[in-house]
């Protein structure tokens, strides 16, 4: 079965939390399913409340477009092919690093979104989460 379960989400979040602790940056970590629906979210102690929505939107964006938000950001700058995409979907599209599609057997089955630090910090925490699955 390819669908993400709550246990899968917990595994992703635990690995991401561990990496966030290692780098000393509290994070918001969100996991969505193949339909972009939230499975689980954690706001680590001290993580910005403003990043709750951003982490969820990063997870959704990674799944909605099956691309990391870091790569989408690079392609959405002025003159690039996806310029203006962040205004679509009622502004839900996030073009900051930290959102990664989750794949199983070559199929995208969800997304992981991390927010609370710099783009580089968000990305490394997200990568650690996805690597755990």
Automatic annotation (TrEMBL):
It comes from the Bacteria. PANTHER family: PROTEIN GLCG, SLR1406 PROTEIN. It comes from Mycetocola zhadangensis. It holds the Pfam family HbpS-like. The lineage of its organism: Bacteria, Bacillati, Actinomycetota, Actinomycetes, Micrococcales. This is Heme-binding protein. InterPro entries: GlcG_carb_metab_protein, PduO/GlcC-like, PduO/GlcC-like_sf.
